[in-house]
Amino acid sequence: MSGRTTHAGDDPHGDESLATAGTSIEAADAAVVLVHGRGATAQSILGFGGEVAGDVALSPAASPPAVRETSGLSLLAPQAAANTWYPNSFLAPVADNEPGRSSGLRAVGRAVKTATAAGISTERIVVAGFSQGACLASEFVARHPTRYGGLAALSGGLIGDSIDVDDYVSHAAAEAEGDAAESLGGTPAFLGCSDVDPHIPEERVHETTTVLEALGADVDERIYEGMGHGINEDETEAVAALIASLS
Fold first, then answer.
1. If we measure between CA atoms, which residue out of 144, 133, 174 comes closest to residue 35?
2. Which residues of 137-154 are buried (b: 16+ CB within 10 A; e: fewer)?
3. Average pLDDT of span 23-44
4. Which residues of 155-169 are buried (b: 16+ CB within 10 A; e: fewer)?
5. Over the chain, what is the mean pLDDT?
């Protein structure tokens, strides 16, 4: 998850497109925001979205994969400039990954706003991502706390060289203007990662769980022995169940 990608401007992802699949956002009653990993694309993670979307049917000939319009589910996937959200490891100091990190968080926010502007409540929106996308997804939910339909962070965690629970809690308290411990309102969160992931230390997954629980999320953390950096069948089924709970 490290590299030398250089982003231009203060908002490098600001002009990138939002890829979609499934029911049109205007007609949908639920949405999944999917955030791709380093070197991948919005189109590619829509494929994963099709796998986990329950009664959503993949069309092998479609690009992006098609989903049945009757599902009532819209898939939304922001695209990163140069297919990379931020240049360095997510364990680097936050400043070292700017402006990509902040621009990426805004891209996720725009996707969520696309759904809410269409009348879908955040309680019916799942934010999900893999690798860099999982880092952005978890960071977005922790920094913009409300009751979401769910969070799925696969092989990722909160961003920065160190994680200060009090920082997230105080930020959430200011955002919620109330009790930070209730700011996520029981949002179900699934965190899956290998114990030997070459990019994601297991401890960072635990730290992410601690922060999310402090903000009131209901966290299901699963660490897989010897998996490496990828998505396994158990994770796929867990995310599918999370999305199915929206119906």
1. 133
2. bbbbbbbbbbbbbbbbbb
3. 96
4. bbbbbbeebeeeebb
5. 90
Is the distance from CB of 210 to CB of 93 less than 8 angstroms?
no
Whether residue 69 is predicted with pLDDT greater than 80 in this model: the reply is no
Angle CA 198–201–207, to nearest 5: 160
Cα–Cα distance between 224 and 200 in angstroms, integer? 12
Of 3.40.50.10540, 3.10.690.10, 3.40.50.1820, 3.30.360.10, the CATH number of 18-237 is 3.40.50.1820
Round the CA-based radius of gyration of the chain to a whole number and report it: 16
- Pairwise CA distance, residues 45 & 68, whole Å: 17
Question: What are the tens digits of pLDDT across the range 97-145?
Answer: 999 999 999 999 999 999 999 999 999 999 999 999 999 999 999 999 9
